[in-house]
Amino acid sequence: MDVTTTFLNGDLEEEIYMEQPEGFIVHDQESKVCKLDKSLYGLKQAPKQWHEKFDNLLMSKGFKILKKYNYFDSKPACTPYDSSVKLFKNTGDSVNQTEYASIMGSLRYVADCTRPDIAYAVGLLCRFTSRPSREHWNVIERVMRYLKKTQNLGLHYNKFPAVLEGYNDADWNSFSDDSKATSSYIFNITGGVVAWKSKKLTILAQSTMESEMIALAVASEEASWLRSLLSEIPT
User: Where is the Reverse transcriptase Ty1/copia-type domain (predicted)?
Assistant: First the structure.
């Protein structure tokens, strides 16, 4: 995101005065100084004040998904998915498809942008959008309660180590009646996540080993692209 005149948007916490700038000196008031109402380029405080304002703005926009769907006061959950639950298509009592699709769209956005820890659960739930049931909705509630417990988690990056690390795994038909496996990968750099994915494989694997090899190929493609991108960034 590019912010126009970034450092001019910060709010000052103390009174700061400056000499009248050249070309704007008021006649017969040359000895007077100007009081700054806003942050200004060149101030030592400018980066800090902008960071604080931007941070407060983002935080004020957060947590809306929990409030929108009335889960802000729900009982927190420790994990986004219960590994003992297996989901099936076309079973159980149906729930409102429009409402299901709406909440899944919101969760998909969160999972794709800042929360890799819910990517698997959300990707699994997206497979049942055509005919959602009460069982699927219960899993959605579990994800929402997990977000309630972990609402202050975020992605953080350090200066070092500037080394790309990647991990991948495959799930060969463990938690769903779908015959296709699920592949997942995650890549870190400088201590923070930069890329992740959890998706159903388009190829039908005949064994756990085959699903692992296919998932490795998918992750290798992403790793190759990331390495190419990083090689073009000046150091």
Answer: 1-64
pLDDT digits 0-9 by tens, 40-52: 998 999 999 999 9
Q: Which secondary structure element, helix H or strand E, spans residue 168, and what is its range?
A: strand 165-171
How many angstroms separate the CA atoms of 97 and 133, rounded? 9
Q: Which helix (H) or strand (E) holds 229?
A: helix 208-231
Residue 144, helix vs strand vs coil: helix
Query: Degrees (nearest 5) of the Cα angle 75, 79, 80?
Result: 90
Residue 185 has a CB neighbour count (10 Å cut-off) of 23
3-state secondary structure 8-40: HHCCCCCCCEEECCCCCCCCCCCCCEEECCCCC
Whether omega for the bond prior to residue 161 falls within 30 degrees of 0, making it cis, is yes
* pLDDT tens sequence across 88-118: 887 889 999 999 999 999 999 999 999 999 9
CB 183 within 8 A of CB 168: yes
CA dist list (Å): 202 to 10, 15, 174, 181: 49, 62, 17, 8
First to last CA, the chain: 21
Place of tokens 């149906």: 94
**pTM of model > 0.90:** no
pLDDT score of 223: 97
> What is d(CA 30, CA 177) in angstroms, rounded to the nearest whole number?
81
